[in-house]
Specification:
This protein has 17 helices and 19 strands. Helix 1 packs across helix 14 and helix 11 crosses helix 12. About 30% of the residues lie in helices and about 20% in strands. Strands 16-17-18-4-1-2-3-19 form an 8-stranded mixed β-sheet, sandwiched between helices. It has a 6-stranded parallel β-sheet with strand order 6-14-7-8-10-9. It is of the alpha/beta class. Bound molecules: NADP nicotinamide-adenine-dinucleotide phosphate. NADP nicotinamide-adenine-dinucleotide phosphate (NAP) binds next to helix 7. The site of NADP nicotinamide-adenine-dinucleotide phosphate has 25 residues, from helix 7.
Length: about 450
């Protein structure tokens, strides 16, 4: 199959988050004529940049300017509010597109598997993050912030984000694009102590140094680290020489541990070698039992081994921040163990190491798992796009009658799917920016799908 501007390669991308947009961008930056449609189940593009990146990290969110430019390209179209599997099935995608990209991220979370985890007041950081970022599915989460103490399980960057948002003042947060419902709830917050818990030692923290350092610069919270937690075993000590990030992290933690408390209204405690073993309470969280660990070398990896020592933290809210998890898409191969779509260099395979599913590709967290920063998805998507371009001569399955890009719009409209096109997203964007400007904030987010649709006229079409 050869492609031309009259008969471009038609690509349908499921998921308009960072990896979908990086894939679209890589496709328009090469020579083959392409025509790309990006679908998202929400009326808004940008996925985790809008709903995951912390509201007080606006610099990271500025990548949306690049995404907006990609969406502005005449070869790229956005179809918001279109759910894969319901509004658009795999058969329909195969009918209208020569190639399909799955870039749906990892929207779920990993459970801890300990007693009491299902109690009211035990939430995943995934939910909490989506709530404060105004994700429509979590607008009604209402976490109980009348409690005095909170445990955040895990020492990755998401745990740091959640801890920082809990520790900041409403006045600080009000300058960001945090959801209005979240800033109102955080304003009334009674939280005084936030415990961030690492099951291994300080040299195994997953946070990056810049993010860790921010925890020591909070206007409203003192940082508390027990120097005893920073005594390193031989292997951890040795890792400082090999890994600059680890060495810097430990240096920052040592600085934290030497600080005196200054009487700020809140305290952020970072505790290491501590595993949660039971969430305590009758109907809601009243405490968290943690077990002290030691580190043991297992084939070069230091793993946490429990000791007999336990302790109860008197917390009323537990936020587990132990990693995101991918969710299976109907009819698409899935590796439940890793929470990813099995693939070889971005080509979807029927099973792990199995035959390739022709014309289907994957990028981002649903390809490699929930690791890396937003920018990591650029190289990841580029690899998958290279695979697609190498396969392109063998693709070209769309029948003549369905090739016109107008056909899918017509088809969806006939099916009664009220999609949000790009110019309607631009209207929403302008509304949010304008509301933000009036309050000296980057934007004020709309957090209800119905309202977004009403404001963009989609429901009145
Ligand atoms: P992560 O970096 O993988 O951290 C997960 C944490 O959970 C680790 O400390 C891990 O400890 C711990 N954990 C896992 N299972 C546990 C268990 N059963 N009990 C106790 N602890 C457990 O994941 P993340 O924080 O969700 O972040 C996801 C990705 O997004 C990361 O690449 C992160 O850097 C990125 N991100 C970046 C930013 C930023 O750049 N500002 C912000 C947010 C997220 P072990 O190491 O012992 O497994």
């Amino acid at each position: 199959m050869t492609y031309s501007p009259e008969r471009p390669l038609r690509v349908g991308i499921v998921g308009a988050g960072p990896s979908g947009l990086f894939a679209a961008d890589a496709l328009i930056k090469q020579d083959l004529p392409v025509s790309i449609d990006l679908f998202d189940r929400l009326p808004t593009p940008f996925g985790l940049v809008r709903y995951g990146v912390a509201p007080d990290h606006q610099k990271i969110k500025s990548v949306t300017k690049l995404y907006q430019r990609t969406l502005d390209d005449p070869r790229v179209r956005f179809f918001g509010h279109v759910s894969y599997g319901q509004d658009l099935t795999l058969d329909e995608l195969r009918r209208f597109y020569d190639a399909i990209f799955y870039t749906v991220g990892a929207p779920s979370d990993r459970p801890l598997g300990i007693p009491g985890e299902a109690l009211s007041g035990s939430l995943s950081a995934t939910e909490f993050v989506a709530w404060y970022n105004g994700h429509p599915d979590f607008a009604d989460l209402s976490p109980d912030l009348s409690v005095k103490s909170v445990a955040v399980i895990g020492v990755g960057n998401v745990a740091v984000d959640v801890t920082r948002i809990l520790a900041k003042t409403a006045a600080e947060l009000r300058t960001t694009d945090i959801a209005d419902h979240a800033v109102a709830a955080l304003q009334e917050s009674q939280v005084e102590d936030i415990y961030m818990l690492g099951r291994r030692g300080p040299a195994q923290g997953k946070f990056t140094t810049k993010e860790l350092r921010e925890l020591g610069e909070l206007a409203n919270a003192d940082i508390v680290v027990d120097p005893a937690d920073l005594e390193l075993d031989v292997l951890s000590e040795a890792s400082l020489a090999d890994d600059r990030v680890v060495a810097k992290n430990v240096e920052v933690l040592r600085d934290f541990s030497g600080r005196a408390q200054t009487g700020k209204p809140r305290r952020v405690h970072i505790k290491f070698l501590s595993s949660p073993i039971e969430v305590l309470g009758e109907s809601k969280v009243e405490g968290l039992r943690i077990q002290k660990n030691e580190l043991r070398d297992r084939e070069g990896q230091l793993e946490a081994v429990p000791t007999d020592e336990t302790e109860v933290l008197p917390v009323g809210l537990v936020l587990r921040s132990v990693g995101y998890k991918g969710v299976a898409l109907p009819e698409v191969p899935f590796n439940p163990k890793r929470g990813v779509i099995p693939n070889t260099e971005g080509r979807v395979t029927e099973s792990v190491g199995g035959p390739v599913v022709p014309g289907e590709y994957v990028a981002g967290w649903i390809k490699r798992g929930p690791t890396g920063v937003i920018g990591t998805n650029k190289a990841d998507a580029a690899e998958s796009v290279r695979s697609l371009l190498a396969d392109a001569p063998k693709l070209g399955r769309v029948a003549d009658a369905d090739r016109d890009p107008a056909r899918i719009e017509q088809y969806l409209s006939e099916k009664g799917v009220h999609f949000v096109p790009f110019d309607h997203w631009l209207e929403l964007d302008a509304l949010e920016l304008e509301a933000g400007q009036a309050q000296g904030r980057p934007r004020v987010k709309l957090t209800r799908v119905e309202e977004m649709l009403r404001r963009t006229r989609v429901l009145t079409k």
